[in-house]
Amino acid sequence: MIVAYDIGEESRRGKLRRYLQRLGLARVNRSVYAGPGTASTAKIVAEKAKKLVKDGDSVFIIVVREDEYQRALVFDGEDFYVVQERKYEVL
């Protein structure tokens, strides 16, 4: 699952960020988290986000099959690696 958000207020961003971390998602960018998740998990995240999002904010949730996520390529500034090699730690 990939969750990208644009939330204007830090306190609301922080609540979503901590929630995503508790679900086991790893931070891949300032406002993007990724990791294991299903359509059911995405709905749960959407319900949480619904409580935090105000006018002008947005949250984008994508469910990706685990085998596709495991094959994702990441460039960390030094080298490319495959997500599977790092067990969801895409930092």
Structure description:
By secondary structure, the chain is an alpha+beta fold. It has a single domain, classed as 2-Layer Sandwich (Alpha-Beta Plaits). Helix content is 35%, strand content 25%. It has helices at 10-22, 39-52, 66-70; strands at 2-6, 26-29, 32-34, 58-62, 73-75, 80-82. A four-stranded antiparallel sheet has the order 2-3-1-4, with helices on one face. β2 (26-29) and β3 (32-34) form a beta hairpin. The longest helix is centred in the middle third of the chain and has 14 residues, at 39-52.
At CATH level 3, the topology is Alpha-Beta Plaits
Q: How are the strands ordered across the major sheet?
A: 2-3-1-4
CATH architecture: 2-Layer Sandwich
Q: What distance separates the N and C termini?
A: 15 Å
Tally of helical segments: 3
| Mean pLDDT figure | 88
Helix and strand run: EHEEHEHEE
Coarse morphology: globular
The number of distinct β-strands equals 6
Q: CATH class, anyone?
A: Alpha Beta
The stretches of 5 or more residues where confidence is low (pLDDT under 50) are: none
- Helix- and strand-based class? alpha+beta
Total individual domains: 1
User: What portion of residues belong to β-strands?
Assistant: 25-35%
User: Could you estimate the helical fraction of the residues in percent?
Assistant: 25-40%
Please give the radius of gyration in angstroms: 13 Å
Biggest sheet details: 4 strands, antiparallel
